[in-house]
Design a protein that fits this description.
The protein is an alpha/beta fold. The chain is built from 22 helices and 18 strands. It is globular. Bound molecules: thiamine diphosphate and magnesium ion (MG). The site of thiamine diphosphate has 20 residues, from α14, α16 and α17.
Length: about 600
């Protein structure tokens, strides 16, 4: 049989090194699925329950491997379902290629079934490169460009394939005017700044006496270099959410997460520093960085458009984090005065005690902080950690003490619900030998993570390491937003929008062949984690957690405290228990390190 366009595409993807593809079938893309079948496993197809989940998987696969993530869907609804997952990749700068079907060329423009203007639909999310194919010889350069641009620019790209074209016999581009003759391959360049700019950066860093470092996902492969420069500068290091695994939390000068999900030592360090060194981070909230004019700034980022975006920097260096730091290190002088660092280390030590105190506070029935607190010392080597968006992301960011060699990621820029389980599945396809733990709220579980457990049930036997655990925080509430309504808006909890049904998640897991564990007693949490980690079958650990434990930012402004008090005056439906729980935690957070505004 002659090679079809579908066969050629599969062949070409393979030539580019693609070995895995996440997706869902449909007649708009059958020509490529037929080719995948004929290719006999050269590229493994992983079937999700929903195209959005396949796109999250492609995004997470790119995060956990550093390679291109690929997702595939049919025309119309399949293609439109991909969009949110693709935005996740787009906002976190991940290289992802989406391959989608389209109606037959002769039908297009005919208000035909499942005909959607996909080039327009994908134009924003895949703006770096989106093209609809119209003839066989065109497909070669569409694949080559879509992949090269995705990898080189760390962007999302898309190819739209009319279904009849997929079945046509492939033809190479003819040697004549109007043909494009492209090729395969890309070698990542070494990106580093000029020496004069490095010297300017070193001068700023050497002049400072209180240096704060902020690292993000761009520093994930620069752990040793960040430690080395932090040591020389006598600095502390805060970590943006996507940079959680950049530095281990057992280093005494690592202040942990920053921002709304952040820690007090990170906040205090930023408020007190005279110099800010930011490495590979797009951390969005400027109010958690020094006030303009307070500190001199140096930033290192591989993407020029991310420079001087959150804080006006004096020196902006375009470069790979590790390469740039290696060049910078010999120019930086070891600071003799370690007072600043000692202070940071003292704050960090106290903060870990505060977190333990908070985790051990009684709650009704289980304090959600204790769930992650108990997990922390039990984290297996090399574990990959994911979290959904919701209150558990606070505990994931603050309480989990990550160690060297572990990986951690979530939907950062988009902060979308529904990403934790697909991320945790992709983690297994990226590294089948590593344990995986995902934290998920009950709302996010109901939204789509529950259905994706069926994907786990389908594939887990293929994984060489079968430790795969999803921990569900069952609080019958969309808790993060409940607290945002209370604290940010001064509104009481709106039961109609916030309360969600109680579902026996662990029993659902059991129904589909996974192991289910249920805990509603804080004293049994440790043993439950031990049991889950010892299981050689994927586990759903359901914990009945208290929605009245506030997932609050480390600094609460007086303004927010006032709004919160207003909610009580307006009559929050949970007033009694809210007052009880928050008297312990919220107000204590306002008073000691509270913002003076
Ligand atoms: C797709 C999507 N829809 C809505 C939101 C807004 N949102 C953020 S967290 C959250 C609540 C999540 O509830 P749950 O999963 O139960 O976690 P909890 O906060 O209760 O721990 C909502 C609605 C979002 N981030 N993403
Ligand atoms: Mg919830």
């Amino acid at each position: 049989m002659a090679q079809t366009v579908g066969d050629f595409i599969v062949e070409r993807l393979h030539a580019w090194g693609v070995r895995k593809m996440f997706g869902y079938p449909g007649d708009g893309i059958n020509g490529v699925f037929g080719a995948l079948n004929r290719a006999k496993g050269k590229i493994e197809f992983i079937q999700a329950r929903h195209e959005e989940m396949a796109a999250f998987m492609a995004s997470a696969y790119a995060k956990f491997t550093g390679e291109l993530g690929v997702c595939i869907a049919t025309s119309g609804p399949g293609a439109s379902h991909l969009i949110t997952g693709l935005y996740d990749a787009r906002l976190d700068h991940m290289p992802v290629l989406a391959i989608v079907g389209q109606q037959a060329r002769n039908a297009m423009g005919g208000h035909y079934q499942q005909e959607v203007d996909l080039a327009s639909l994908f134009k924003d999310v895949a703006g770096a490169f989106v093209q609809q194919a119209s003839s066989p010889p065109q497909v070669r350069h569409l694949v080559d460009r879509a992949i090269r641009i995705a990898i080189a620019e760390r962007r999302v790209t898309a190819i739209i394939l009319p279904n009849d074209l997929q079945e046509e016999t492939y033809r190479e581009p003819p040697r004549k005017h109007g043909s494009v003759h492209s090729g395969v391959g890309f070698a990542r360049p070494k990106i580093e700044p000029y020496e004069t700019d490095l010297r300017r950066a070193a001068a700023v860093l050497n002049a400072g006496s209180k240096v704060a470092i902020l690292v993000g996902a761009g520093a994930l492969r620069a752990t040793d270099e960040v430690i080395a420069i932090a040591d020389k500068l006598g600095a502390g290091v805060a970590k943006a959410l996507l940079g959680k695994a950049a530095l281990p939390d057992d280093l005494p000068f690592v202040t942990g997460s920053i921002g709304l999900l952040g820690t007090k030592p990170s906040y205090d360090m930023m408020m007190g520093c005279d110099t800010l060194l930011m490495i590979g981070s797009g951390f969005p909230y400027s109010e958690f960085l020094p006030e303009e004019g307070q500190a001199r700034g140096v930033q290192i980022d591989i993407a020029p458009d991310m420079l001087s975006l959150r804080y006006p920097m004096e020196v902006n260096l375009v470069g790979d984090a590790a390469e740039t730091l290696r060049l910078l290190l010999p120019m930086v002088v070891h600071k003799q005065d370690r007072g600043w660092r000692d202070e940071i280390q003292k704050n960090v030590k106290e903060w870990w005690k505060t977190l333990e105190d908070r985790a051990m506070q009684p709650a009704n029935p289980v304090n959600p902080q204790r769930v992650t607190w108990e997990l922390s010392p039990r984290l297996p080597d090399g574990v990959i950690l994911t979290s959904d968006s919701g209150s558990c992301a606070n505990w994931w960011a603050r309480d989990l003490k990550i160690k060297r060699g572990m990986m951690a990621s979530l939907s950062g820029g988009l902060a979308s619900m529904g990403a934790a389980v697909p991320y945790a599945i992709a983690a297994k396809f990226a590294h089948p030998d590593r344990p995986v733990v995902a934290l998920v709220g009950d709302g996010a579980m109901q939204m789509n993570n529950m259905a994706e457990l069926i994907t786990v049930a389908k594939y887990w036997r293929k994984w060489s390491n079968r430790q795969w655990i999803v921990c569900v925080f069952n609080n019958e509430d969309l808790n993060q937003v409940t607290w945002e309504q209370r604290v940010m808006n001064g509104d009481p909890k709106f039961n109609a929008s916030q309360e969600i049904p109680n579902v026996p998640y662990h029993r659902f897991a059991e129904l589909i062949g996974l192991k289910g564990i249920y805990v509603d007693d804080p004293e049994k949490l440790g043993a439950a984690w031990d049991e889950a980690l010892a299981s050689r079958r994927p586990v759903l650990l359901e914990v009945k957690t208290d929605p009245e434990v506030p997932p609050l930012s480390p600094h609460i402004t007086l303004e927010q405290a006032k709004k919160f008090t207003e909610t009580l005056i307006k009559g929050d439906p949970r007033e009694g228990s809210v007052i009880r729980e928050t008297a312990r935690q919220v107000l204590s957070a306002v008073l000691p390190g509270g913002d003076k505004k």
